Amino acid sequence: MKLLINGKERAVESKTLLDLMTELNVNGQLVVVELAGDIIPREQWSETELDEQKPVELVHFVGGG
């Protein structure tokens, strides 16, 4: 499947958001996921299916001082 992730098209094998986080090797504790404009809670990642028509935004937390 081809997804638009953070504005770039990318081919992935994932079926759910949880699969995508694993495939991209993303630390789920340090990211907020937006799917088609909606923030998806971590508890729903395993049941939220991906759709080529719905862009994904991964917002990473960055610390600093």
Question: What is the topology?
Answer:
Layout: E1 2-5, E2 8-11, H1 17-23, E3 31-35, E4 38-40, E5 56-60
Antiparallel strand pairs: 1-2, 3-4, 3-5
InterPro entries: Beta-grasp_dom_sf, Mopterin_synth/thiamin_S_b, Thi_S, ThiS/MoaD-like
Pfam families: ThiS
Protein name: Sulfur carrier protein ThiS
Please write the CATH class name. Answer: Alpha Beta
- Can you write the helix and strand succession as a string? EEHEEE
Low-confidence stretches: none
Structural class: mainly beta
Strand order of the largest sheet: 4-3-5
Give the full name of the CATH homologous superfamily: Beta-grasp domain
Helix content: 10-25%
Here the CATH topology equals Ubiquitin-like (UB roll)
The main pleated sheet reads as: 3 strands, antiparallel
Rg from alpha-carbon coordinates? 11 Å
Count every helix, treating DSSP H or I runs of 4 or more residues as helices: 1
How many individual β-strands?
Answer: 5
The overall pLDDT, averaged over residues, is 93
Global outline: globular
Integer count of domains: 1
Taken as a percent bin, the fraction of beta residues is: 25-35%
User: Alpha-carbon distance between the termini?
Assistant: 39 Å
Name the CATH architecture.
Answer: Roll
Pfam families: ThiS
Protein name: Sulfur carrier protein ThiS
Organism: Alkalicoccobacillus plakortidis
